[in-house]
Amino acid sequence: MVAARILRALAKKPDLVLGLATGSTPIKVYERMVRAHRNGIDFSRVRTFNLDEYLGLPADHPQSYRYFMRKHLFDGVNVPDDNIHFPPTDGSDLTKRCGEFEQKIRDCGGIDIQLLGIGRNGHIGFNEPTSSLASRTRIKTLTERTLEDNARFYGPDETQPEVAVTMGIATILDARSILLQSFGTAKANAVHAAIEGPISSFWPASALQYHANTTFYVDEESAARLTMREYYRRVQRAEADSEARGLM
Ligand code: PGA
Question: Measured from the CA of 184, which atom of ligand 1 is nearest?
Fold first, then answer.
C-alpha cells in the first residue's frame, strides 16, 4: 500500500521529493520500487532526502545508511546521484552543513512524502525521547535502547556508533504527507503512545498528531495496544469505499 501510494504520487509528479527511512521496516517498499523500475517506471527526476546517518561511518561501511540505501533502493532505480541527499556526517562544520541540508530540502520545494519507521522508544529518525518537538537537522546522541536494538548488526570487533545526525521533528513535520510503518509486538507501546497518548517529547512520534496528513500502516501486533482499534478499522473501510466510489 505504501509503495502503491508512492508510485501513484510519482505518476502525478515525476520530480517527486521523497523523505526516506532505513531499518528493517521499509525494505519491502524499496523492493516494490525497484520492481516498478524494472517494469519501466522512471525515477530520473526524483529527489531524495534520508532521515539520518551515523556520525563517523564512511559511506562504504556496511552499517552506514548510505550503504543500506544503495543496497536496498538506489542500485535498483535510476535516481541520479546528484539528487540523493543525506544529512552531513563527514568533515567539519556540521552545524552549518545541517542548516544547508535543511535549505536544500526547501530549495527542492519541500518533501512530498516522508517515509518513517518507529523505534521501540517512540523515536522517529534518530529523534530520541526528549528531543525538542521544534528540532531541526542536528547531531543526536543515541539512547541505550536504540544502541541495544541495533547492536545485532555489529560484529564483536566492530565499534557501534553512538552519535548520529538526524532530521529534526520540525523537519519531519514540514513534509506534505507522512507514511509511518510499524510491524511487530515490540512496537505496540510506541504505536499506542504515538496515536493515542498525549503529545510529548518523551514519545517523539506523538508529535505526528500535529500533522494533518499522516497515515500509520501497522500490523495486528503493532496495533495490539490501540484502544480504538475497531474504529480505525471502520475508518479504513469507509475511506476505501469512498475512494472506490471516486469521492476522494
Ligand atoms: P526498524 O527500525 O525498522 O529496524 O524496526 C525503525 C526505527 O528504529 O526507526
Answer: 5
Task: Return the pLDDT at 155.
Answer: 86
What is the reported pLDDT for 133?
A: 98
- The burial class, CB within 10 Å (0-12 / 13-18 / 19+), for 248 is exposed
Instruction: Give me the domains of the chain, ranges plus CATH numbers.
Output: 2-244 (3.40.50.1360)
0.85 surpassed by pTM: yes
Cell of 67: 550503504
Q: Are 99 and 59 in contact (CB under 8 A)?
A: no
Distance between CA atoms of 73 and 64, rounded to whole angstroms? 14
Catalytic-role residue among 50, 128, 174, 192: 128
Ligand 1-lining residues (CB < 6 angstroms): 23-25, 117-119
Please give the torsion angle defined by the CA atoms of residues 30, 80, 139 and 67, in that order, rounded to the nearest 10 degrees: 50
Residue 127: active-site member: no
Q: pLDDT tens-digit profile of 179-225?
A: 999 999 999 999 999 999 999 999 999 999 999 999 999 999 999 99
pLDDT for 176 beyond 80? yes
